[in-house]
């Protein structure tokens, strides 16, 4: 994706959506899933991901679970009940934003 600034405002929503679809995920898994879904168009760096995960955890939207994998501790993230509700709210807001942008960019193709 040419302009990474466009996705930065949506990063938390992307994380929440992925966790909504999975029971739990660890950081690297999140970055790889986004890369896979977008066919490499969107690459989330660790420098952007982990501060976002920590912020979502601090807001009470994520729980953290430590699990030993191959003699290493791995930190898994999963949605809290509050996180599940917030995910639905943020997805609705994002869909409304996308519809508005479609209306501005190409009024003939906008979805009503």
UniProtKB/TrEMBL annotation:
Bilayer-crossing regions: none
Domain Transcription regulator PadR N-terminal: 15-88
InterPro entries in the record: Metal_resp_DNA-bind_regulator, Tscrpt_reg_PadR_N, WH-like_DNA-bd_sf, WH_DNA-bd_sf
Protein name according to UniProt: Transcriptional regulator PadR-like family protein
Lineage: Bacteria, Pseudomonadati, Bacteroidota, Flavobacteriia, Flavobacteriales
């Amino acid at each position: 994706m040419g302009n990474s600034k466009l996705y930065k405002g949506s990063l938390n929503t992307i994380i929440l959506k992925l966790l909504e679809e999975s029971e739990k995920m660890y950081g690297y898994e999140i970055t790889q899933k986004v890369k896979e879904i977008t066919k490499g168009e969107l690459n989330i760096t660790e420098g952007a991901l982990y501060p976002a995960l920590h912020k979502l955890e601090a807001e009470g939207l994520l729980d953290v679970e430590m699990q030993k994998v191959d003699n290493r501790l791995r930190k898994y993230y999963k949605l809290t009940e509050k996180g599940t509700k917030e995910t639905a709210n943020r997805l609705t807001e994002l869909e409304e934003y996308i519809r508005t942008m479609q209306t501005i960019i190409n009024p003939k193709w906008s979805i009503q």
